[in-house]
Amino acid sequence: MDGQLGVARRQVSDVVAERIERLIVDGVLKVGQPLPSERRLCEKLGISRSALREGLKVLRGRGIIETAQGRDSRVAKLSGERDASPLMHLFNSQPRTLYDLLEVRGLLEGESARLAALRGTDADFVLLTRRYEEMLAAHAQENPVDPREHARLDHAFHLAICEASHNPVLVHTLQSLTDLMLSTVFASVNNLYHRPAQKRQIDRQHSRLYHAVIERLPEQAQRAARDHIHSIRDNLQEIEQEEQRLVRATMRLEGWA
Questions:
Q1: Which of 46, 105, 147, 195 is the most exposed place for a label (fewest CB within 10 A)?
Q2: Following DSSP, what letter does each residue of the chain receive, concatenated?
Q3: pLDDT tens track for 124-134
Q4: φ, ψ dihedrals at 215, nearest 5°
Q5: Whether 168 contacts 175, CB under 8 Å
């Protein structure tokens, strides 16, 4: 009898664990985000508190949920930090990586924008509009906003489009690149937003991308996303070449050549 109860308990715990895993895969529960209260989770999932605790125990064993002393349970960082860390260091140490990553962003974000225009729900578009308006409000402020805050808002806007694609693998692939993504967005914001012509260009591109998605125009959305990323790449290359010309001219002036 005890053995049968043990099997039933394991089955309930596995079912609960799988339902919570689905919420994580779908982006409802995000990496690093504290889990809702037990009461709220039980209400949302329609389960008992004991079943929830059994399911969370399974997820802790899998390393998907972590609970630190004195803190709430939260979704663990899912990529292997030990393995990813040297890779991240190598990527961050090579300037060429910036352009390689922008190339990947063009491919992934173009497709995510196309899918968002096809699959996005009204709720997705409410969240996307919120991110877009937050970004516009920051750009319109008289006092300059910290470039890192600009980068964060820019990234949040692009991530909202990706989440509206309803492709969990695409969302998690982009989220796994968050650190590198932010470094490229920061590079573009830091180097381009203080140049009026480039700032106006970026604002127009974001507007074109936003409207193509919410007006459900998939081909236009894909093209707008790719054009935006390619434009950032081209502008950054131009700035890099300007800097190199300046260095060469300065060295000639100082008699180094």
A1: 46
A2: -HHHHHHHHHHHHHHHHHHHHHHHHTTSS-TTPBPPPHHHHHHHHT--HHHHHHHHHHHHHTTSEEE-TTS-EEEPP-S-HHHHHHHHHHHHH-THHHHHHHHHHHHHHHHHHHHHHHH--HHHHHHHHHHHHHHHHHHH-SSPPPHHHHHHHHHHHHHHHHHTTT-HHHHHHHHHTHHHHHHHHHHHHHHHTTSHHHHHHHHHHHHHHHHHHHTT-HHHHHHHHHHHHHHHHHHHHHHHHHHHHHHHHHHHHTT--
A3: 999 999 999 99
A4: -90, 5
A5: no
Prediction pTM value = 0.66
Give the orientation angle of helix 2-25 with respect to helix 49-61, to 10 degrees. Answer: 70
Domains of the chain: 2-73 (1.10.10.10), 84-252 (1.20.120.530)
Q: Determine the Cα–Cα distance for residues 171 and 104; give it in Å rounded to an integer.
A: 14
Nearest to 6 by CA among 48, 40, 76, 54: 54
CA torsion sign for 241, 245, 251, 255 is: positive
Q: Which residues are registered as beta bridge partners of 75?
A: 65
Would you state the pLDDT for residue 220?
98
Q: Give the contacts of 158 (CB within 8 A, at least 6 positions apart).
A: 109, 185
d(CA 177, CA 87): 11
Q: CA angle 208-213-217, nearest 5°? A: 95
pLDDT above 50 (res 82): no
